[in-house]
Write a structure and sequence with these properties.
Blueprint (H helix, E strand, L loop, with lengths): L1 E7 L4 H10 L6 E7 L14 E3 L2 E11 L4 H12 L7 E7 L13 H4 L1
Antiparallel strand pairs: 1-4, 1-5, 2-4, 3-4
This protein binds adenosine-5'-triphosphate and magnesium ion.
Magnesium ion binds next to loops.
């Protein structure tokens, strides 16, 4: 299992969600975050709101998936979020040792999807 974090522009969220649903990724967590990339938030301000100092409003997706879903998930995020402009975002993939569904006690592959 992997845990995928993706930081995207808030105005791409709907497109990314639709692209994820198309590859049967239906369980996601969406978190409003502040951040900047290598431009330090300076040249990118035109794309969105400036929150505080040089930190810009972004959206973080947190998606836990079985291994076979990792590449489709990455492709879907890129499909929905890429404009070709600076600040399109970044994807981080981490190993995920455990996942437990609280209601049933299911673990692992059963619990994740
Ligand atoms: N190495 C990193 N560590 C933590 N967060 C990061 C990192 N790189 C990017 N981010 C987060 O992702 C957001 C989007 O990054 P961004 O797309 O601007 O990356 P970039 O490396 O500057 O690429 P680009 O040149 O395309 O803008 C940032 O606002 C920040 O929140
Ligand atoms: Mg950047």
């Amino acid at each position: 299992m992997k845990l995928i974090f993706a930081i995207i522009q808030p105005d791409r969220l709907e497109e990314v969600k639709q692209a994820l649903y198309e590859v049967d990724v239906n369980l996601i967590t969406v978190v409003p975050v502040l951040g900047h990339g290598r431009q330090m938030g300076v040249t990118e301000i035109y794309r969105g709101g400036k929150e505080t100092g040089n930190l810009l409003r972004k959206v973080e997706l947190q998606i836990a998936v079985n291994d076979s879903f990792v590449d489709p998930t990455i492709k879907a995020i890129i499909k929905g979020a890429r404009t070709g402009n600076i600040g399109d975002g970044k994807i981080f993939v981490m190993d995920l040792p455990r996942c437990i569904r609280i209601r049933t006690g299911d673990e692992g592959a059963e619990a994740i999807g």
